[in-house]
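[RESIDUES AND BACKBONE]
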Amino acid sequence: MTRYLIDIRQMGPVMHQIHALSARLEEKFPIRDRQVVPHITLAGPFSTRDEERLIRDFTRVCENLAGIPQYGVGGYGFFDTSRVVFVTIIPDDCLRQFRATLAEALLPYCTLRDYDRVPAEEFQFHSTLAMKLDWLTFMRLRWYIRHQEPVVHSPHPVRVTLLKNTRILCEYDFARHRMLSGARARSRAMLMRDRDSLKPWGDDPGI
């Protein structure tokens, strides 16, 4: 079955810090599912029989958003039931409303999960470090992660990605107010533009 996911790919120093921390966790603990690409999930994974409508709705919601969604980074958090360890993401009002509007648009024809349906104020934004842990590993990792230096956030351009079976189907660039094809989003030319966009903060996207 085709699986879709909508997320924000993290860039620059935040991405590098999460990569490094995730790698350290993998070295110290028996982690089967390491999160390879630092990202913030907004919806999914889900399935649908109407990909064309999905792309139209994704584009419409992105284009109609009044402002550019932003976020900060907090400490570390845990989902006890699913045994997930994550970096806490602090969304602004724009990002909260954007996610809620996406869910509302997709709900009639996409198989959204229960956590995609929660109200805007209750959704837990996060960036996963490790998941699907056995209970002992989860408890050991909880203790370990509390003693790690926090991720230090710096602002950077925000792009929201629609993935199809882990491949970029399209990506909306809020800074440029345009939708990018998967090939365009992955291109070397776009990578160079991202590097230029991050220069004001002395950052490198490192994609």
